[in-house]
Amino acid sequence: MFQAMTEHMPEEIKQKAIDEFGGLNQWHEHYIQAISSDDMQKRYRKMVEWFGGKEQYLATVKNPISKEVAASYQKRMDVI
């Protein structure tokens, strides 16, 4: 998932994350730690449900959505 995400995100966003965490490896370590939490696993299960399955969710990661749609999904996630 991390690889698909980083391969398909805009370069400026990727660079911001690299700058924040001190490098791609450090960012990856943070990502693994963050998604391992029970709360995040619950959120991923809900997103997979919304997208209709893991494959559909991964396809969305590989083909990013617009900022407007992302904001809408974030509002839904905040409710969870």
Describe the structure.
The chain has 80 residues and is an all-alpha fold. Helix 2 crosses helix 3. The longest helix has 14 residues. The protein starts with a helix and ends with a helix.
Overall 3D geometry? globular
Task: Count the E strands.
Answer: 0
Structural class: mainly alpha
- H-E order: HHHHHH
Topology:
Blueprint lengths: L1 H7 L2 H11 L2 H12 L2 H14 L2 H9 L4 H13 L1
Helix pairs in contact: 2-3
Key features of this structure:
single chain; 80 residues; mainly alpha; globular
Describe, in short, the structure shown.
The chain is mainly α. It contains 6 helices and no strands.
